């Protein structure tokens, strides 16, 4: 045994910032399917899957083959500068898979939080409004903007001070905690009455099944009511499927089971079998301003004549 868990934990404590915790006192040497082998040669069954990042298991042969093939050709150009076909192919596939009876377009990013941030930017650019309604116990990431949406103080926003503004928190329906669909809808009406008018709200964002919050499924009747509310007030409905997507709930996207569709869907985690890829898919008609406002940074536009022949 060349390495021990104890020795590596000691090195980690010396070299890695304290905020990056370690839930289990093991360092993993290799993994295959659902089996992990630590540096001391002990075998474990992986029930964590990198927190829903490995629906395909570790080192799925198709994922490894696709990545290997790509690595022998090209790693990066910055797609907005020079294109490559796999980006387009992924978007085509996601457009075909995402629920919603409308023409779709997608954009790709790296992390779930980045996908959520871009969904919010699009909703703001599209509506010209700034407010966002998120839900208690919802989880949307740990960057500053997504932290403002994440509805759990400890351990996420505790000690972080003032969050980016114009986020309003509604109740997520959960019978187990005594919150009915009616209670949850009433909490949104209270926001409209006491905090922000519907015409100030750009988006309502929720997980179809709360993950970090405790694995609570949003009732179909609640989703339908949110869809109606968004249609009535021109609010963008965002389904954060970073955790529920990629087959996690039995269908490719959980919203397929909800009877209504969102305007924008975020995806990440298991979408790339353990590699960092995320994105958003949404109504094609909403993307014209997005392309102008969000994705093509002025600096990139300015550089284009220099970079292109
Ligand atoms: C629903 C949801 N949204 C967003 C995120 C943030 O994703 P990432 O950790 O890739 O930034 C997560 C991560 O757990 C998530 O579960």
Automatic annotation (TrEMBL):
Molecular function as annotated in GO: 4-aminobutyrate:2-oxoglutarate transaminase activity; identical protein binding; pyridoxal phosphate binding
Top EC class for this record: transferase
Record's keyword terms, sorted: Aminotransferase, Pyridoxal phosphate, Transferase
Family annotation (Pfam families): Aminotran_3
Leader sequence segment: none
Cofactor (UniProt): pyridoxal 5'-phosphate
Name this protein carries in UniProt: 4-aminobutyrate aminotransferase GabT
Organism of derivation: Nitrincola nitratireducens
């Amino acid at each position: 045994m060349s390495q021990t868990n104890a020795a590596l934990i000691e090195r980690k404590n010396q070299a890695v910032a304290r905020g990056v915790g370690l839930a289990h006192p093991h360092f993993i040497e290799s993994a295959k399917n659902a089996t992990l082998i630590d540096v001391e040669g002990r075998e474990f069954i992986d029930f964590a899957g990198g927190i829903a990042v490995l629906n395909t298991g570790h080192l799925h042969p198709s994922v490894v083959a696709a990545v290997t093939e790509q690595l022998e050709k090209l790693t990066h150009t910055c797609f907005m500068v020079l294109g490559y076909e796999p980006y387009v192919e992924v978007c085509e596939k996601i457009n075909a898979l995402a629920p919603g009876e409308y023409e779709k377009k997608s954009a790709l990013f790296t992390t779930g939080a980045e996908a959520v941030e871009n969904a919010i930017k699009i909703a703001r650019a599209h509506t010209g409004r700034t407010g966002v309604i998120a839900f208690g116990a919802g989880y949307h990431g740990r960057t500053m903007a997504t932290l403002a949406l994440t509805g759990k103080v400890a351990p996420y926003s505790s000690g972080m001070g003032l969050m980016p503004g114009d986020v309003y928190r509604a109740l997520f329906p959960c019978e187990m905690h005594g919150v009915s669909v009616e209670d949850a809808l009433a909490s949104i009406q209270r926001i409209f009455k006491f905090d922000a008018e519907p015409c100030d709200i750009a988006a309502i964002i929720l997980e179809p099944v709360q993950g970090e919050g405790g694995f609570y499924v949003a009732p179909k009747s609640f989703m339908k009511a949110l869809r109606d509310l968004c249609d009535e007030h021109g609010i963008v409905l965002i389904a954060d499927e970073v955790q529920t997507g990629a087959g996690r709930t039995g269908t490719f996207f959980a919203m397929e089971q909800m009877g209504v569709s969102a305007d924008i869907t975020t995806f990440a985690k298991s979408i790339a079998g353990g590699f960092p890829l995320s994105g958003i898919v949404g109504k094609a008609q909403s993307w014209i301003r997005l392309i102008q406002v969000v994705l093509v940074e002025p600096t990139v536009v300015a550089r284009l004549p220099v970079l292109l022949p």
